[in-house]
Amino acid sequence: MTTPKPSHLRSNNSQPQQILARHGKSFYWASKFLGADLAERAARLYLFCRYVDDLADGDLPDRHESLEDIRARLAGENVAAGPEIEAFIELANTHNIPLSAAAELLGGMLTDQNPTAVIDEAELLRYCHAVAGTVGLMMCRVLNCNEPRADSFAIDLGIAMQLTNISRDVLEDAQMNRRYLPASWANFTPEQIAEAGVNCQQPVAQAIDRLLDLSEQYYASAQLGIRLLPFRSRLAIAIALRVYRQIGWVLKRRKVAWWKGRVMVTGVEKVLLSLRSTADLRPKKVPPHQTKLHQHLQGLAGVHPS
Predict the structure, then answer these.
(1) The domain containing residue 181 runs over which residues?
(2) Looking at the domain assignment, is residue 110 inside a domain?
(3) With the CA atoms of 31, 41, 110 and 193 taken in that order, what torsion angle do they form, in degrees rounded to the nearest 10?
(4) Rounded distance, CA 236 to CA 231, Å?
(5) Predicted confidence (pLDDT) at residue 262 exceeds the cutoff of 50
(6) 222 belongs to a structural domain
(7) What are the residues whose beta carbons fall under 8 Å from the beta carbon of 56, sequence distance 6 or more?
(8) What's the Rg (C-alpha) of the chain?
């Protein structure tokens, strides 16, 4: 007779990994190549990021105050912020994650509590650093990367992915009264974009195309920096990069028809991209980081003075 396993042993996935699998399918796929310990750490970091993101995008009446409390707690103040935040602080202390990066992430979430209408490329990139470049910085620590040069490339990967997110979600964001496309590129209100009228379809598509071209500069930089990661982590990050980059290419393949809804990367594409990612494991000298990519980011977490 077989003795049944206790309930906490029946699944190979922890709660953080289950949430990652449910809400971050591309990242979950990539995390399978990290190994159990690193995958669990990455999932715990994702759990924190997902928690504050859901809070920022939710409809709780006191969400602004809650986000402020979390930011204060990350800054070292003795305020109650909930068990999810204490769990993240424990993770941060264990793996030397800079809490300044996490606090900046909260600052980005707080900006989303107001109607958003980005003015220019500089404002866009600073926002992308706040909500995603900081995540790249934190992920470096989770993956045991002790190479200081890697920070700049990790920031680039976060920014590239956020630019992809914005490109994919233009319609959804507009329906939430947010326009991340710079006004200098497409000066429409979120309401006008949400209506997806014929008069704004092509101008907005051209702005998205420009956004995707900008993301390519950051993806290209990040792809070079992958070789600064510990060998065990390189394949997973290379896969995450290629899979997320593919979203933009699918969008371009569909003529940037943003008004037709969100695009997705298929399972077959993910497998093929994973195989191609093995090319990023070949030894190659990593050139100096391109300082021009961070010219608008001075003073932000992990950004070296130019």
Answers:
(1) 98-294
(2) yes
(3) 10
(4) 10
(5) yes
(6) yes
(7) 63, 67, 109, 110, 112, 113
(8) 19
Amino acid identity for residue 158 in this structure: G
Mean pLDDT, all residues of the chain:
91
Three-state DSSP state, 232: helix
Q: Please report, for residues 92, 134, 140, 293, 300, the alpha-carbon distance to residue 125 in angstroms, rounded to integers and kept in the order given.
A: 25, 12, 20, 9, 11
Which amino acid is located at 162 in the chain?
A: Q
The confidence band for 91, taking pLDDT boundaries of 50, 70 and 90, is very high
Question: And the tokens for 272?
Answer: 């093929």
171 in a structural domain: yes
Q: How many residues does the chain have?
A: 306
pLDDT (tens digit per residue) in 136-165: 999 999 999 999 999 999 999 999 999 999
Provide the domain count of the chain.
Answer: 1
CATH number at residue 261: 1.10.600.10
Cβ-based neighbour number of residue 7 at 10 Å: 7
Q: Which of 18-32, 109-123, 241-255 has the lowest mean pLDDT?
A: 18-32
Tokens at 97, concatenated: 């994650």
**18 part of a folded domain:** no
Rounded to an integer, what distance in angstroms lies between the CA atom of residue 46 and that of residue 13?
A: 14
Across 53-65, average pLDDT: 89
**Residue closest to 149 by CA, chosen among 239, 226, 214:** 226
Q: Which helix (H) or strand (E) holds 203?
A: helix 198-225
